[in-house]
Amino acid sequence: MPDPYAPARSAIASAEDVSRRAHANTLLSPKFYSTDYAAMDRLDVGAVRAEWDTMMKEYEGDNNIDHFQRTPEFAAEALRLPDALRQEFLDFLISSITSEFSGCVLYNEIRKNVENPDIKQLMTYMTRDESRHAGFINQSLKDFGLGVDLGGLKRTKAYTYFKPKYIFYATYLSEKIGYARYITIFRQLEQHPDKRFHPIFKWFERWCNDEFRHGESFALIMRANPKLLTGLNVWWIRFFQLAVYATMYVRDHTRPQLHQAMGLDPETYDYTVFRITSEISKQVFPITPDIDHPAFRRGLERLFEISTAMSAAKARGGLLGGLRRAGLAVAGVATFARLYLLPVQRHDLPAQIRMAPAW
Fold it and tell me: What does DSSP assign to residue 148?
């Protein structure tokens, strides 16, 4: 059974290392999903038809059709990174490509397996976008003499079954937090261009607008089907909000060299992203985590401590290492449970659903 908390720390030096990292199945690694396509087929967006049709026209306009064009500096900059930064940047690229390609695979499978014209059209556009993103990142990996076999990854990576509503909650949050992450990095490096150690960051502003629009799509689906946002489903929303924030916090704190190179403090960066994501998600979710609650901050710090200790226990191996990991896994679950039961912020949903990427 894979270690669910420990970040992968082994060096990335070959195509096999890249493949192993992309195939990793841990709580911190991006997943591939399957779902109930018949339930997807039954979705009705009639309640938000005007906003839906406007959004479809935006997708059709394809304002990023000419955006993902590489320049010669990509290959040149890849050769200049010091080893520690190079390793963390490669880990960032592999995690990003797996996440983008996960969306591409999921959206394409839904597209192929539904007849609902609204959902099929949406999934066609989102597949197009995510395919571009994944391919663009893969080209940057190839500058390092590495790369991901995306076809092989699709065939061999483990898939997790999620009900459609879980797909909506998790993917909405993934797309919106992806926007918040990319735009925060872009704004930092826009102000401090001397910290831009690789040209891919110049592409983040228009790139993250794709992520924002994808999130808008799921917001419209959920608002058109309000039962997804009431009753016991609010507890599922609460779970996915916490899971996405906790995963980001732990993963980012395992990449100190990457953030230092960009002039970012991981703690400040993460809470900036959390604030943006929470503010955006008020368009669709009736609750948001109280990220300023002292116990929330202590809980995320504790999860990172557990992750670090889990890595050490894994490296130690043997019976004592295994017992230590089992104890830490229990501690991780208990910490997550305490975070889950913390007070949340509640608010009414706005009449106007769509938002603009204004950060």
Answer: -
**pTM of the full structure:** 0.92
What residues are paired with 32 via a beta bridge?
A: 159
Reference 232, options 278, 282, 281, 286; nearest CA is: 286
Q: What is the pLDDT of residues 332-358, one digit of tens each?
A: 999 999 999 999 999 999 999 999 998
Let me know: does 281 contact 217? Beta carbons within 8 Å. Answer: no
Output the six-digit token pair for 327. 């104890």
* Alpha helices (H) in the chain, listed in sequence order: 15-23, 37-41, 49-61, 73-78, 83-113, 117-142, 150-156, 164-191, 204-224, 233-252, 256-261, 266-281, 294-316, 318-340
* Alpha-carbon gap, residue 204 to 200, rounded angstroms: 7
Give the strand pairing for 344-346 and 287-289. antiparallel
User: 314, exposed or middle or buried, with CB in 10 Å at 0-12, 13-18, 19+?
Assistant: middle
Residue 222 CB-half CA count within 13 A: 31
The rounded Cα 272 to chain-centroid distance in angstroms is 16
SS3 281: helix
Residues in the chain: 359
Tracing tokens 């999130």 back to the chain, one arrives at 215
Among 6, 2, 20, 4, which residue's Cα sits nearest to residue 313?
A: 6
Amino acid identity, residue 8? A
C-alpha angle with apex 67: 276 to 244, nearest 5 degrees? 30
220-238: per-residue pLDDT in tens?
Answer: 999 999 999 999 999 999 9
Helix, coil or strand: residue 287:
strand
Contact between 105 and 154 (Cβ < 8 Å): yes
Across the chain, where does the E strand assignment appear? Answer: 32-34, 159-161, 287-289, 344-346
Question: To which residue do tokens 């306009």 refer?
Answer: 61
